[in-house]
C-alpha cells in the first residue's frame, strides 16, 4: 500500500468519524427529545414550543466567522474547535440526563438549547474541515462518506435510542450513553485527526474589532428581544398567557425584531469577517430570491415532520419500539436510498428540473400522513418482525409493524431524500469558495428556518384543528416552494449542473 493511499484512507476515516459526530446530536435536541417529552407527559403544544431549542441551527452563520477567524492554541483552527465543541457536547448531554422535562422544564430547555448551539457550531467546523482537508478529486467520495456516517448516527440517536428507551424504560440512561459516545469522538479529534494545510489561515482582520462586532450583535439581539416583549406587554398581552396563540405571538415577534437589530449592530460596529462574507453572497444576482427558495423548498416537509414522533406515539398510539424501528431505523435507510436515487436522476436532469420534480414528489408524500390520520393504525394490516439480538440493539419479543405506517414512512423518506439531493446541490452552487464556511453556514441556517420555526405553530395548530386537517395544511404550505422553483427557472439554469450531492447534513 502506497503512502498516497494510506493518506487518503486516513482522511476518509477522519471524515467518517466527524460525519458520525455531526449527526449524533441532531435527534437528541429534536425527535428523540420529543419522544422523551411525550413519554414524560408534556402536552402537545409545549412539545411544539420545545422545537425552538433548535434556533441556533438558523443563526450559526452569525458566529461561524469567529471560528474562521480565531485559532485555539496547539491543535490548530479546525481540530481545536472540533475537540472543544465535542467535549462540551458530551458534558451538556450528561447534564441533560440528570434533568426531568416534566418537573424542571426550564432547565431542560436550557440544556437542549446548549446541545443545539454546540451541535450547530460543530457542524460549521466539520463542513469547513472537510473542505480544507480533502483535495478536489476526493471531495465527491468524502461527501458520500460524510453523509453515510451522518445518517448512521441519526439511526443511532433517533431510532436505536427509541428502542433502548422502551426496553430500558429510561431516557436519562440513553442520553448518558450518547454523552459517552460524543466524548469518544472528542478524543479522536484530539489525538487522531490529520492536520489541514498550513497555508489555510484565517482571514486577516483586527481581532479586537471582530470581538467587539460580535458583542454588539449579541447586544442588538438582546435589545430586540426586550423591545418586542415590552411593546406587546404595553399592549396588554401576557407572555405567560394560557392561550398558546398569545405565547406564539411573543416568540415570533421577539425573533422578528431581535435578528435584524443584531445584524444592524454588528454592521455598525464592524464585525468584518461576517460583513465581508455576507456582502460577498448578496452581491450575487438573485441572492434574496434564492434565500426565499431555500426557506420555502423544505417548508412542507418541515410541517409534516415537525411533530411526527408525538403524532405516531400519542395521536396514533404506536409503541416507542415500533416508531423507532419504522420511522427511524427503516426510515433513515430509505432516506439514504432516496438520496442515491436522486443522485442518479441528477446525472440526467439539470438542477432546475431536479428541484421541480423532487419538490412535487415531496408535496405528494405528505398526503400519506393525512391518510394515516384518517384511517388509523391497522387499516392495512401488519407484518410481524421476529425478535432479534444484535448486541448493540435487540428486540426481546416479536413486534408487529403497521403496513400503512411503513408505506407512509417509505414515501416520505424516499422523496425527502431525493429532494435533499437537489437542495444540497443548490446550496453548493451558491457558495463563494473564499467564504465557503460562512456561506454554507448562512445557507444551511436559512434551510433550517422551516424545521425550527414551524414547530411551535405546528403544536398549537394540530391541537386546534386536529391531525387530518393539519397534514392537509402541510400540503398547502409545500406549494409555494415548488412555485418558487418555477419562478426562478432561468436563474437556476444559469447556475449550471453542479456535481450531484447525496444528502443534506442537517
TrEMBL record:
The chain crosses the membrane at residues 45-67, 79-96, 108-126, 147-168, 174-198, 210-228, 248-266, 287-313, 325-347, 354-373, 403-430, 437-454, 466-488. The keyword Magnesium does not apply. Keywords: Membrane, Transmembrane, Transmembrane helix, Transport. It holds the Pfam family MFS_1. GO terms for cellular component: membrane. InterPro entries: AmpG_permease/AT-1, MFS, MFS_trans_sf. NCBIfam families: 2A0125. This is PAT family beta-lactamase induction signal transducer AmpG.
